[in-house]
Design a protein that fits this description.
The protein is an alpha+beta fold. The protein has 4 domains: 21-183, no CATH class; 215-300, no CATH class; 311-347, no CATH class; 367-474, no CATH class. It has 13 helices and 17 strands. The protein has helices at 21-52, 89-97, 101-117, 119-126, 132-143, 151-161, 170-183, 229-248, 255-269, 285-300, 340-347, 375-385, 433-441, and strands at residues 67-70, 73-76, 207-210, 223-226, 311-312, 315-318, 322-325, 328-331, 336-339, 367-368, 401-404, 423-424, 428-431, 445-450, 453-457, 463-467, 470-474. A 4-stranded antiparallel beta sheet has the order 14-15-16-17, with no helix packed on it. A 3-stranded antiparallel beta sheet has the order 5-8-9. β8 and β9 (336-339) form a beta hairpin. α2 packs across α3, α3 (101-117) packs across α4 and α3 crosses α5 (132-143). The longest helix is centred in the first third of the chain and has 32 residues, at 21-52. The two termini are 39 Å apart.
Amino acid sequence: MLEATTIPAPAAAAPPAGASARDLLDAVRAEQVAAQRAEANVLACAYEWAVMHPSADGTQNADDAAVFFHPAGEEPISGAGCPGVAEFSVAEFGTTLGLSTTAAKKMIGHALELAHRLPRIWSRVRSGEVPAWRARLVAEATIHASPSLTGDAAAWIDAQVAPFLTKVGQAQIERTVEQAKKLFDLAATPEPNPEDPYDGLDQDNRHVHINHRQLNPDGTVDITGSLELVDALDLDHAVRCGAEELKRLGSTDSLGGRRAKALGHIGRHQLALDLMGARGTAPAADEGRAALGEFDRRLAGTAARRLDLHLHFDAMFSPDTGLCVSPAGRLEGGQRLLLLEQVKAWMGDSHTEVRILPVIDLNTEIECETYRPSRRLERQVELRDQTCVFPWCTRPAARCDTDHVEPYDHSARAEGRDQPGPTSTSNLGALCRSHHRLKTHTAWQVTSPANGVFVWTSPHGHRYRRDRHGTEPLPPEPRPPEPRSASD
């Protein structure tokens, strides 16, 4: 087994007041060296933690081994040949560092990959010669290479990269991984036949991607795509005609703005734009505005797909100014910032349907007699917590379980006892499935001293306060006194 020794770091102190330029540079260099060695020591501790907490049979195939979960299935946290790590041990290591469980899996996986499959790079990290973050770039590339790299392929990459690690970048690392795949016959697809111009072209590369998770400052989103030529020409024709007709009707938007609006009308109403119905000469300004209004009214009566956007804005009442709504809110689903002026502009569109849903007061206590909460109670918990309430977890609450802090007693009502774990606002919290299982099957403990506030205690006594604003470490529980021997 490889040892993960820590690197002694020299004590670094801030330069005294009035220090010279050279003293300041010397202090900066000392701080950088100390930070680099500290980062290497943390990575070494991640490896030691993994060694302390093996999976049931010590392999990645064990039922309790830590893995990455994604739509395509499960993926080990490190490459083939590395030992398995107990799933529930990762969370405590991550919370100690202020990391999510996923980020902790990455760090532990990188440490295992370096120690077992990239020993030359690992040795340079342990000696303090190269920053740990550079080594982790290589580990990330070799762990998630597709198809998976064999031990020999990883060793070849290790030998190629280790001497030049301080000089190589992400692109060079990726090229080295591709070279290893070819050298060790790991390429997943055969080389195309140069005599057949259509060989290798059967892969479907068509796509349309609307990046609605990234909202630009002006309220727009980016769209990219790849269409068949005939579809692209049809779409371009419809958008071009729509933009021209919008101009004829008096629109003062730019050409890009008119094309974008035309595309929106096509998507909203599933029809190619024929704004005039009959082509003719350009109308006068007043006639154009009237025609544009008539077109909007006509579209408003057209059957269109409905898109629900859940918007949240804070409001407060003041005796002097009345009800005040914050100028910035958020769009639910991606926690994206949204300006109130943008929403007003959307509402001004005559064919935009606006629905006001019932307001849920997050400070009101809602209680259900059944084990399963009502949809209104679930929704209140989602809005209050926003994410999973485990320390530093960022999974949206809408995709989490609604869990009882104090367990619900299914036999209490039949036996005439008070319910110790009521299905109520103050006794519920959003937990993703992974951390729900961790709470149920491990020594982690959680209490809720106030509505929406959760205090977690790890198996080793570390404590964390979690609310909708984030995670805050608390002083750990005091350790029990060591038993005194008879000779004391």
